Fold:
Amino acid sequence: MPSRLIVSRELADLFRQLAHADRLRLIEELRHGEKDVTTLGLALSLPTSRVSQHLALLRAHRLVEERRDGRNHFYRLAQPFIADWILQALPLVDIRARLEEAEHIDAARALWSAPAPNSSH
Amino acid sequence: MPSRLIVSRELADLFRQLAHADRLRLIEELRHGEKDVTTLGLALSLPTSRVSQHLALLRAHRLVEERRDGRNHFYRLAQPFIADWILQALPLVDIRARLEEAEHIDAARALWSAPAPNSSH
DNA sequence: TGCATACATGCACATTCTTGCAAATTTCAG
DNA sequence: CTGAAATTTGCAAGAATGTGCATGTATGCA
Structure:
């Protein structure tokens, strides 16, 4: 019974969904609660159509859930701990990058860990 | 200063390397210590050339390190905790898959968590 | 009903990955 | 030096993804 193979495929599939900067930012953006598509688009400076496509992917993989209110669609993390889990990977990023941009990592950790920053670049 | 954007790109890059079943299996295979290419190939039923290619990728991203001894190249995890971190993602895999193959996940967790199983499928 | 807002979808094109094999390299044994 | 073992590399073809835009759909409001 190829349990290991099957599970590794499931995991690989999950990682594939997370292998995109925009989607990671969306997840972190939802870290502190639900937001609608337009808000997310403004926060990440992305066209809503793109945001919508990403969210559709994340939703298909049960990473986010949707709630409709009028003409707004609010999205939230299906399993909030994913945001923390992702941040735990920071020490794993390429060592060169870490040395060169250690500041960025610390800054990002601070930003993403903050209560709810008003998006800053 | 686009710290968040930069870091999200670094992370996405990391996830991309992990978005492949074979590479995940290689990492879990190295969980308990270094192994050489041929051994890994036999364990995963993959041609050594493929294993070598995957390892080259993982090495380029500083996820594994190499040690040469004679004509054997031994690989090991650069940061062992990655194996545990990956397993922490199991609860995140698609719910349908979880319901249908919960057994596999439990089985896999057991297998991968075991001291050093002699590879079983 | 008619129009604007908020999202979702469908497509075509470009780019990146994966894969299987053949061809190099490096090292050890005789 | 010669050949085999252990690995790495180079390629080409096919599969997946990402991207920009145009089009569709649903909802709120006058």
Q: What stands out?
A: Residues 16, 20, 47, 49-50, 53, 68, 70-71 of chain B lie near DNA strand C (CB under 10 Å from a C1'). Chain B touches chain A through 51 residues (CB under 8 Å). The beta strands of chain B are 35-36, 64-69, 72-77.
